Each structure stands twice: as structure tokens, then as C-alpha cells.
Amino acid sequence: MPLKSTLTEFIIGEQRKYSHATGGFTALLNDIRLACKRISYLIGKGALAGVHGAAAGENIQGERQMKLDVMANDIFLRTNEWGGNVGAMVSEELEAVYAIPPQHPRGRYLLAFDPLDGSSNIDVNVTVGSIFSVLRCAEGVAEPAARDFLQPGTEQVCAGYAIYGPTTMLVLTLGHGVHGFTLDREIGEFILSHPDLRIPAETSEFAINASNQRFWEPPVKRYVSECLAGRSGPRAKDFNMRWIASFVAEVHRILMRGGLFMYPKDSKDPAKAGRLRLLYEANPMAFLVEQAGGAATTGRGRILEVAPDGLHQRVPVILGSKDEVERIARYHGEHDRGVDQPFTSPLFNERSLFVQP
Ligand code: MN
Ligand code: MN
To answer: What CA–CA distances, in Å, run from 178 to 114, 196, 272, 289?
Structure first.
């Protein structure tokens, strides 16, 4: 049986192919990988290690913090702060930029992460993950601050996630396709198991939290009602709906077999433009999805081109199979120009007013 590439081999191969990658970058990815292995181990122990349950407080975004949110955040910080590769870090769990302690050298890269995504799933033993995004620090910046992180997603050097499911996988892009690695627990290495992931342009699967339906905007209501109308509706085919409530797991399914994920803009809390955070959730996933041939939009523009204005800024997220994402973006455009044709199923079914060519 031929030996498959390890993650280390893969990264060094990429480093040799592309001049922008340096040894420091390889070392950074080694540390991120180690953080993910440490978290995977803890999650695997579960109740045996007493890591389930809520932590004492809330995070800075007013969300209930689980013990594992705190532990995973700590693992990410401790594993990445000492190597001299990172200049500063931003985490979902920390309000401000995390400065590298003075005893360690500072590196050229900025690391933003969600240490544990989907943590409400922890106590019910459902898949969770970690998401990360790597940016370059501008030349001449000695003390990276919040403004240094406020770069559009197109500037990401690398992004990926670890998924802690029945197997632990690391899925990564360095801007040349998307590659999946499965953790071999016996030898402790990530092995290239899913090279060159591609998202098919078409799908008949979509994921959205339907309990928010009354808060959605008309273009999203239109899209979902057309899907729900199935074979006798304007789409003339049946759709399946999925909802895991773990962003990593939703994106992973889409990378494996296509599909569409939406956490759109809604009117539930007018102060928030969406649910997911731009820097360490939407941008890294949008980068992965685009690199796999899919698309990612807020409904009104490419996610990767959003100019960030805050570390914890939220954005609407619609991503996955290209044809569906483009359709929803078109529905937003038609709605904003006042030329949309909202689909109402009774009219369609009884009098066929809205038959589309
Ligand atoms: Mn998250
Ligand atoms: Mn989280």
C-alpha cells in the first residue's frame, strides 16, 4: 500500500512550489495543527475529563461560554504564541487583540480563530470544530493592533478548519485549492485523505434555521418557499433540508457533497447584520468554499470583499454550490431594484401565474 502524504509533507511541498510561503509559515501551520490535535483529544475524552458543561461566564458577545470554549481558546493561544511566527491573535472569546507575551519573539502573521465552533453541540456529542484565518501583518508594524486585522478576506494567506466528528479532519486552503487531511490517531499525524475538494455547481440540499423565517428578508423567503414547493413549484425539483447548528459541520458537508448554507440577514436583532462573525467564521469559510469552486455572498456582495470595521463584526452568510448562491444573490438584486416576483405557492399551484420558462 503506498504511503499517503502527511500534512507536513504537503505544506513543505506547497512551500517549495510557491515563493510566498516561507519556513515561518510552515512552522505556523505546524502549531495550528498541534492546537487542533490537542482540542480533538480533549473533546474525545468528553465527560471522562470533566470538560462538559457551561463555564462561569459569558463571552464578550454575550454568548454562554462552555468550559470547552475557554479551554480550546487557551490551547490556541498557548500553542501559537511562543513559536515566533505570529505577531498577534484575535479570538471569538477575547474582546481585544491578544498581544504576544514579551518573552516570545513576534512573527509576520496575524492569526484569527474561533477556537470551538458549534459549542452548544458539545454536551449532546454532536460535531464541533475550530476555524482559523491567517493574514499577513503590514511591514513596519511592531505592535499589531485591531486595525491590522481589518483586512478584507481576499487578503487571507491561508484558512481552514478542524472538524471533530467521528473522525478528526483538518481542511485547508493556501489559495491553491482545498485539501482535507484525516487524523491518524495511532501515529498522531494528519494524512492527506481528500485532495482537491470540489463543490458541484448544482445541488438540491439547503440548510437554514427555519425557526427564524419570520425575520428573513423577502429574497430569502422567496428562495426557501420555491425550494419547499418541490417538483410542482418553480424549481421543478424536490429539495432536502439540513440543519446541524454547527457552522463547521455545515461547511464540511458542502465541501464533501455540495449544498447550500444560509445564515442570512434578518430583523431579529436589528443591531446585528447577521449571526456569523466576519474575521474568523465567514472569511475563512468563504475562502475555502471559493477555492473549491463554490461561491459565498452576503446576498449583496462577495463576502471576501467586505471591508471589515470591527474585530467581531457580523455578516450575513450564504455559501455553497455556485448556481444556488448566484440565484439567491440575483433575488436580492431584484428585490432591491423592486423588480422581484415573490413566489406565493397558492397562486402558483392554482392558477400558474408565475410559471417560469
Ligand atoms: Mn462559531
Ligand atoms: Mn466558538
So the answer is: 19, 5, 31, 8
